[in-house]
Model the fold of this input.
Amino acid sequence: MTTDRRERTPGTPTLADRYVHAATRRLPEDQRADVADELRGSIDDRVEALLDERPGLTPEQAEYAALEELGEPERLSAGYSGRKLRLIGPELFPSYVRVLKGTLLVVPVVALVVATIDALGGGDVGSVVGAAVWTAYTVAVQVAFWVTAVFAVVERGPDDDVRESVGAVWTPDQLPELSRAHRGSVTDLVAALVFLWLFGAAIVWQQLNPSVSYDGEDVPVLDPELWTFWLPLVLVLIVAEMVFEVVKYRAGGWTTRLATLNVVLGAVFTAPVVYLAASDRLLNPHAVAGIQEHWAEFDPDVVGLIVVLSAVVIYVWDVVDGWRKALVAR
Amino acid sequence: MPDDVLAGHLQELRRGTVVMAALATLSRPTYGYALLETLADAGFAVDANTLYPLLRRLEKQGLLTSEWNTEESRPRKFYRVSPDGQSLLESLLAEWQELHASIEKLR
Done:
C-alpha cells in the first residue's frame, strides 16, 4: 500500500507538512526546498514502513508515530544548519559562572548605599528595608540578565579573541589564591554585616525620626548629648566590627589571632554601652518623661539593667563562640 | 557489571563508527531512510534526526555525492560515496585497525 502524501489537497496541511515546515524554515534559502523534499520523502518512507510493520495502524496514526520518532523539529533543524542548541555551552560555562559571581558582589554594596541614603533622608524602617530589598532584587536581576546576554552573544561568535577576552580560554594564572579558596561562611558574614548595619542604622534613625512625643514635640530615645562623643564612637566601632567580619571571612573563618582580637574589639565595643547604660546616661530624659506620660511604671533603671545584661551576655557569648570555633578549626 | 553501564559504553564506542558504517554502505547509491534501515539491521542504531543532517554534512565536505531519483513512486535523494569519501573510509579503517592493534598490545 502506497500513500503519496504529496497528492493531498493543498488546502489541508498534514502534520508532516507542518513538521517539514518547522524543521526547514530557518535553513538558508538555497537549501530549504531540497532539504524539505528529502525530509518529506524520508517521513513518507517511514510511514509506509510502519504501515507494513503494524497493519492495524491508520495512515494518520502511522504519520503521528513517524513524526514522534523523528522528534523535535528544532533539533533536526539545528543538525542541518549546525546551529547550537544551547544558550551558553560547556566551554564558556565556567567563566560565565565566575563572571556572574564576581559581578553579583555589587548587589549588597548598591543595596547598602541606597538603604543608607534612604535612612539619612528620613525614611522609616519599612521604607529603608523595602528600598534595600527592592534595590538588591532589581540590581541582581539586571546583572544576571546582562551577563547572561553577553555570554550568549559570545557563545555564538566563533571569534577566539573575543572568547579570550571574556576569560573563556582558561590559563593557570586564573587559579584562585589558596587563602581565597578557603573562605569563611558567607552566611555568617552576611548575617553579621546585616546585624551591624541595622544596629548602626537604628542609632542614626532614632535621631532623625524621633518617635517619642514629649511636651508637644517628638524627641529621640537616646540622649542627643551623646552625639558629642559616644554615639559617633559606637558608629566607628560598628564599622570596625564590619571590617573585622570581612577580614575573618577572607581568612577562612576563626583563627586564634582573630579570636584574641575579637576579645579586645568586643570589650572596646561593649564597655561604652555598659558604662552609659549603667550610669543612666543612655536614654534621653525627655523621652523617658514622654514615655512615662503614657506608661507610669516605665523605669529607665530597668532598661539600663536590660541593656547592661544583654551587652555582657552577647559579649561573653561572642568571645566564647570565637574561641571555640578557632580551637576547633586548628 | 550492570547492563546499562555496558550498554552506555557500547553506544559511546559505536557513535564514532557511524560515519565509517555510512561511508561503507554508500558504495552503493542509497537514500536516507534505506540507509537508516541498513545501518539499524547491521547494529548501528543511529537516530533519523542524527543521520539525515549527517548525510548533508558529509555531502558538504565532498565525501558524498547525491542525485535525485524521480523514477520511483516517490522522488528520493540517493547518496553515494565520492572518491574523497572512499579514501577517508580507507584512512578511518586503517586507523581502526591500528587502534585495535594498540589496544591488544596494551592488554
Summary: Chain B has five helices and three strands. The radius of gyration of chain B is 16 Å. Residues 3-106 of chain B form a domain with the Arc Repressor Mutant, subunit A fold (CATH 1.10.10.10).
